[in-house]
Amino acid sequence: VNPAVTFGALIGGRISVIRAVYYWVAQLLGAIVAALLLRLVTNNMRPAGFHVGVGLGEGHGLLLEIIMTFGLMYTVYATAIDPKRGNIAAIAPLAIGLIVGANILVGGPFDGACMNPALAFGPSLVGWRWHSHWIFWVGPFIGAALASLIYEYVVIPTEPPHAHQPLAAEDY
């Protein structure tokens, strides 16, 4: 349900472009429907959406979104995507929920701790409020891409094509 996490999985080569596009369409449509339902149950109030807090520049909000989404995507990789994770997959929902909660506690007062472009898009579209909206797309996509690349190429690197392989026992 997060276009940034979908982008991270795409950058890491874990899903195809076609699948990513399908996910993005579903995620954005879901966010729009949710914002419309929110408007319906709140007596037609316009959703406020996400915004950078007073006294915080757009650059700081962008950096905050990059860092928080990096932590989220890294946690997703470590607990749900990494093929060498072992039995840790059972705690993936808990670990992901804890990082989201921690990010909300830290970043919430400053920019709402979005970490999810769909979460920003639905209320912005329905409430037609676009101020600093780009931060909640660019930041999460950069953070997710960085976490994916670091995890794929540093934490679980693939073997180089000319790596020395240990000899099998029957070869000596």
Automatic annotation (TrEMBL):
Belongs to the MIP/aquaporin (TC 1.A.8) family. TIP (TC 1.A.8.10) subfamily. GO terms for cellular component: vacuolar membrane. This is Tonoplast intrinsic protein 32. It holds the Pfam family MIP. It is found in: Vacuole membrane. It comes from the Eukaryota. The chain crosses the membrane at residues 21-41, 61-81, 88-106, 134-156. InterPro entries: Aquaporin-like, Aquaporin_transptr, MIP. It is a multi-pass membrane protein. Keywords: Membrane, Repeat, Transmembrane, Transmembrane helix, Transport, Vacuole. The keyword Transferase does not apply. GO terms for molecular function: water channel activity. SUPFAM superfamilies: Aquaporin-like.
